Every structure is written in structure tokens, then in C-alpha cells.
Amino acid sequence: EDRFAAVAWQKGPFGSPVFADVAAWFDCSMHDHVDAGDHVILIGRVEGFENSGRTGLGYARGGYFTPALAEKSLLANADGSLLLGAVAERDGQILMVEDGKGGWTLPFVEKAETEGLEALEDHVDQHFGLILWPSLLYSVYEDTKTGRQHVIYRATLTAGVPKAGRFFPIQSLPLDEINDSAVRDLVKRYAAESTLGNFGVYFGNQEKGRVHAVAAKG
To answer: What CATH number did the domain enclosing 186 receive?
Structure first.
């Protein structure tokens, strides 16, 4: 029986079947194996790899989902005003901006209905003269007092002196000068998680919610 007769595939560098039109593939040789009770853990040495740039597939809570499409859906279907923001890090420092009230906050921009994450990238480029590389979601919350949704990403920044704002070391953030309590709690969590090298995603409102641990630093 040919198990792959119904799909297009070719042999990888070490003979493993590589399916056509996949997001990415690895081909491995045997490196080691470890006995683990009634299982055997096979450890492979990566001999070949390719990333097609297509959207990948995730699995959580008994179902499949597409992370990139789920994120686009979040941005497209938020009710009311939506602010995009970033915990933008460079060389162990975070970019903070003046909040107009004598304190500091994170870079935020209001997203228009037809815009996506590029609105945040353009905002940082135009107002700070830096290139922003968003990474993973970091916090999603609603300010119940204003009705505004907030979607904040972890991000990195290019070298250069910002046209506005200021970089603060992660472990010396101006917490007493951050007027927005939700932002203050967010950057405090970021500083703590940065020390451990493990980050989570917060879902809730400006006062209470839950942090889901999902990723290591990177």
C-alpha cells in the first residue's frame, strides 16, 4: 500500500517524504534515542530544512488553528477603538514615550478599520525614526473605562537615536512615572519575565486577567 499516493511529495536529503506546499519541513538523520518508560524518544540531527513562507498550523485545546489568520481576525473584529502597542526592546532597553501628562508610556497608535500591524510599524518609523520588528503577541486587554481595546506585541528595534522618546534599561524602568496602571503592570511583568527568559500572553482588562505562558525569549 502506498500511503502517499494521494499527495504530491518528493524525497528529502535523507530520503524522508517531503510533502508539497507545506509551510516548512525538516529532514533528519538519527542522532540518538532515549528509553522513556513504554516510549522511545528519537532525537534527530537536522540535515535539511526549508521554509516556504506559508502560514503554519497550530494545535491547542483539541483543535487546529492558523496563528497568523487568528491574529488577523483579532485585529479585524475588535469592537470599538483599538490601540496597537509594542514593548520595543533593543540591547536590554525598552523604548518609552512621553504620555502628554508628565509621565511615560509605550508606543501606541490607533488602528484604522482597514489597517493591520503595519500601522504600528509605520507609526514607529515616522515618529521615532526606527524600524520596528514585531514578534509575538504580549498582551490583549480592554480598558473598561474607555472601551478601548489594546493589543501589544513584543518587538525589537533597529540601531539609531530615536527622534522622540527614550530608552530605559529593562531592570531600571521609570515605574513611578508611568501613569497608566495597565501599562505599568505590563512592563513590570515584562521585566520579570525577561529575567527568566520565558514570556506569556495576557488576556483580560486593565485590572484583571490571566497570563498564558507560551514562549521562551526570542
So the answer is: 3.90.79.10
